[in-house]
From TrEMBL:
<dbReference type="GO" id="GO:0003924">
    <property type="term" value="F:GTPase activity"/>
</dbReference>
<protein>
    <recommendedName>
        <fullName>Ras-like protein Rab-2A</fullName>
    </recommendedName>
</protein>
<dbReference type="Pfam" id="PF00071">
    <property type="entry name" value="Ras"/>
</dbReference>
<comment type="similarity">
    <text>Belongs to the small GTPase superfamily. Rab family.</text>
</comment>
<dbReference type="InterPro" id="IPR005225">
    <property type="entry name" value="Small_GTP-bd"/>
</dbReference>
<dbReference type="GO" id="GO:0005525">
    <property type="term" value="F:GTP binding"/>
</dbReference>
<dbReference type="InterPro" id="IPR050209">
    <property type="entry name" value="Rab_GTPases_membrane_traffic"/>
</dbReference>
<dbReference type="InterPro" id="IPR001806">
    <property type="entry name" value="Small_GTPase"/>
</dbReference>
<dbReference type="InterPro" id="IPR027417">
    <property type="entry name" value="P-loop_NTPase"/>
</dbReference>
Amino acid sequence: MPNITPVPTPPWNYIAKLVCIGDSATGKSSLTIRLCEGRFSASHDVTIGVEFGSRIVPVGPPANASLGIGAPNGEARHTNSAEQKKMKLSLWDTAGQETYKSITRSYFRGASGALLVFDITRRSSFESATGWLNDLRQIAEEGIVVILVGNKSDLAAQSTDVEGGTKRAVSKEEAEDWCRRENVVKYVETSAKSGEGVEQAFLEVAERIYQNIEAGKYDLTDRRSGVKGYGTGAGREKGKAPKTVNLTMNDAVKNGQGRGCC
């Protein structure tokens, strides 16, 4: 009998382009490094232009049932599924300095998801969020999925010189109100140093992109699209491939360890 070579299982079903945007020194690079490499660097050079990373995450059932992502009122959806779908997140970490804005804006084109990052302890970075969002929506794909991320959450409770004061400069309620006004789907607080909330933030974006795929909102064969299916020419970058790691469900729901500033 002839030998039959089994068809290999694809490492991912979809690939989606995500951008991390926001003011300089809000921790965008630290969030990307934490997600892609599972580590925190206390010192990081200022991003010039963009930096790139990637990670494979589960989307759709049964993962969304375990995490409760994207379901109405936060309730988990229970759907029978033969196989867990996976999405490769192509992450573009953009520079936040005004000097590089003309460069970074060009990378918004074709993005299907975005993390708009501000520093919880620096109010000016939150006040800049509206400008970043307007720039993004002018250039990126229509209906881009945007998550507002308040980073450096473990600094928020630290005391200041003022009696009874803390370093938190933006309340959770204020950030959530901003999301409702600006039609941003979710607010998540993160700490890049401890890892708390980081994977949740990226998974929130990925799950909503998957829901848009299921609703037929993307042309997966269009090379200009920020979302593609496996085997349509997506994900074959020239040169050395970026580091890719698999995210398990246990990774997605557990909090990071340790304390720190970012």
